[in-house]
Amino acid sequence: MDITNAAAQAAPLKLALVIASDRAGRFAPVIADWFRGRVAERTDFELTVLDLAEVRLPTSLSYDPDPAVRAELARVTPVLEDADVYVVLTPEYNHSFPASLKNLIDRHYTEWRAKPVGFVSYGGISGGIRAVEQLRQVYAEMHAVTVRDGVVLPNAHGQFDEDGRFKDPTGPDNGAKLMLDQLAWWGRALKDAKAVRPYAA
User: Fold this and answer.
1) Bridging pattern class, strands 45-51 and 85-91
2) Fewer beta carbons within 10 Å, N or C terminal of the chain?
3) Residue 123: how many CA atoms within 13 Å on its side-chain side?
């Protein structure tokens, strides 16, 4: 699927890359750097990165009057609200996705609605696909649209050299292009539709 000339010439869609892992020693930044390079090759997206290792939200969803919590939400929520499309970069932890990501999702609702979400996943032999399949169900509850194609990286550490470059980027690069093309189509279609008729959940 290739984006149309009309879409390519329109104002770029705002893409929020959510880096889900917040563990010490995580591999996510290496993959994120590669993905940022793929987005930079295109003219149809404007990229913003939301790294959950840099976000400090309590696990309790009850009202918290702590000014630091309110300040953190005031920093994070506008990024999600302003985005037209999302890409979630997630590892697989114990057959699922990180608690930091669930916490972020559960603290927001309208921000995700009627917007497309793509996935870049990594892990052991499964490449994170079990985390992604669970996330598809969660994002359906948020009224988001998940695109079919994504990037799956089994045994991700072994796919990169010591300089943080893919040993063979062919498959991941092709997967990223497919996903970004689909996000461009859905992002433009949903944005145009909402301009004519606001989405009603």
Assistant:
1) unpaired
2) C
3) 23
Distance CA 10, CA 129 (A): 33
Using alpha carbons only, give the angle 162, 163, 169 rounded to the nearest 5 degrees. Answer: 95
* Cβ 110 vs Cβ 78: under 8 Å: no
Q: pLDDT tens digits, residue range 83-125?
A: 999 999 999 999 999 999 999 999 999 999 999 999 999 999 9
- Determine whether 129 is exposed, middle or buried from the number of CB atoms within 10 Å of its CB (0-12, 13-18, 19+): middle
Helices (H), 47-167: 67-82, 99-106, 129-141
Pick out the chain residues at pLDDT < 50: 1, 3-4, 7-8
Q: From CA 141, how far away is CA 16, in angstroms rounded? A: 19
Report d(CA 69, CA 79) in Å as an integer: 16
CA distances, 44 to each of 4, 82, 88, 121 (Å): 10, 16, 18, 23
Q: Note if the pTM is more than 0.85.
A: yes
Q: How far is CA 28 from CA 120, 157, 175, in A?
A: 10, 10, 17
Amino acid making up residue 127? G
